[in-house]
Specification:
423 residues; alpha/beta; Aminopeptidase; 2 domains; 4-stranded antiparallel sheet; 15 helices; 16 strands; 18% strand; M14 family metallocarboxypeptidase; metalloprotease; protease
């Protein structure tokens, strides 16, 4: 008997929010994904996803499903909201940015359904909202490719916004200003150093405010990983090879502070971020012989992590709101350094730290014509300049993002803007 069969299957109830077990209407129990109906033999198709979300929207007054963009090949990107329409506190799940990593999408579809029908979640949903982008790369899911239909990695495009999929997500981040964002992925193991059931990581970018960074690390290390370990899953920190005998870190191979990756962009945008990575490769001989067993293990680990994100979001709501609010307001003071390199575990080079950054950046009219839409999608404010161009002040909520987008020292600036010294 395989490991998955030996351990108890994770409850689909969101135990973090459930007050007491309640009966689920028979109508709700019939609402299943294609993955569930086949016992994990195959992934939910796009047609099944569309029908599932439409039925979820029809059955529950607290659920709305709307299109927020289209993919390269014209497929809709749907955002599912469960909870308050104009919430002051929001959690966002971004699912399967890479099309060949489908388990996160399955977890988000069932997670939205289970949250919507859970009476114990009422207290949370009366004042907050949980958003799901269940299929962030529909073209990649159809083709079973990491990239979108244009051959671009969406998860390397959260600054320049060249892909329609990343642009749609940027608009969601701007319009809903989530306090917590969980990005669901999968990874391929590299035995014997990288073979955990599930890996997680917070925003490592040094422009992430201290309290926001601490909350993301706590989400990984005090909620998600312990919960998975309690259910029999092995866990680790994404990007870190560990000695198979001692468990000690050997070297870092991924998971740096690049702002263009969603996990880090989230932090720069003053929200608590978490990356989750379920292991795709079979973990046992039983999983090797039965792909459905492997698929179910992957989805189960994603669901446990998803539920833990919601548990922390509920338990630590005041703390998280204080952290994200303080981070946003700090930009209005226009104080402190800006970082163009380094990470929370990698000191930046001296040239990557600006201890006295400019008060803003000047764009020519042509530059603004070129990148104005992207600045708007990022929620970056600009002002008319006397020469017909635009002035982008640092004194705004998105202070660090301004420099990351416009300074020539940044990894992937939108355009080389002219720094302005207002002294």
């Amino acid at each position: 008997m395989g490991r998955f069969a030996r351990r108890a299957v994770a409850s689909l109830a969101l135990s973090a929010l459930l007050v007491a077990p309640t009966a689920v209407a028979a109508e709700d129990t019939a609402l299943e994904t294609g993955f569930e109906r086949t016992g994990g033999q195959r992934w939910t198709t796009l047609a099944e996803e569309r029908e599932f979300l439409a039925e979820l929207d029809r059955r529950h007054r607290d659920v709305s499903v709307r299109q927020v963009g289209t993919s390269v090949e014209g497929r809709p990107l749907r955002l599912v909201r469960v909870g308050a329409e104009h919430a002051r506190y929001t959690v966002l799940f971004v699912c399967s940015q890479h099309g060949d990593e489908p388990s996160g999408r399955e977890a988000c579809l069932t997670g939205a359904r289970d949250l919507a029908r859970d009476p114990g979640a009422r207290r949370f949903l009366d004042r907050g909202a949980v958003l799901f982008l269940p299929n962030a790369n529909p073209d990649g899911r159809v083709a079973d490719t990491r990239e979108n239909a244009a051959g671009l990695d969406i998860n390397r495009d959260h600054l320049q916004l060249r892909t329609p999929e990343a642009r749609a997500l940027a608009s969601v981040l701007r319009d809903h200003r989530p306090d917590v964002v969980h990005d669901l992925h999968e990874y391929g193991g590299r035995p014997p150093y990288y073979v955990k059931d599930f890996l997680s990581l917070w925003s490592r970018n040094l422009n992430t405010a201290g309290q926001v960074h601490a909350a993301g690390q706590r989400l990984s290390e005090e909620y998600v990983r312990p919960a998975l370990e309690e259910r029999g899953f092995s866990t680790g920190v994404y990007g870190i090879y560990t000695d198979p005998e001692t468990g000690e870190p050997i070297r870092q191979v991924a998971g740096d502070g690049q702002a263009r990756i969603l996990r880090n962009a989230i932090g720069v945008k003053n929200a608590v971020g978490l990356l989750g990575e379920a292991r795709q490769d079979p973990m046992t001989e039983e999983e090797q012989a039965d792909p459905a067993l492997n698929n179910r293990r992957r989805v189960e680990s994603q669901r446990i992590a998803l539920d833990e994100v919601l548990r922390m979001a509920e338990q630590r709501r005041p703390e998280i709101q204080r952290a994200t609010t303080a981070a946003r307001l700090a930009g209005l003071r226009d104080e402190g350094p800006v970082y163009f390199g380094g990470a929370d575990n990698e000191p930046p080079a001296p040239e990557d730290v600006d201890t006295d950054p400019p008060c803003g950046y000047r764009l020519t009219a042509a530059q603004h014509q070129e990148v104005g839409d992207e600045l708007d999608l990022h929620g970056v404010r600009s002002l008319p300049a006397p020469d017909g161009g635009r002035f982008v002040p640092m004194r705004q909520e998105a202070r660090a993002l301004v420099a990351v987008l416009l300074d020539t020292r940044a990894d992937a600036p939108l355009t080389p803007a002219e720094p302005v010294d207002c002294r």
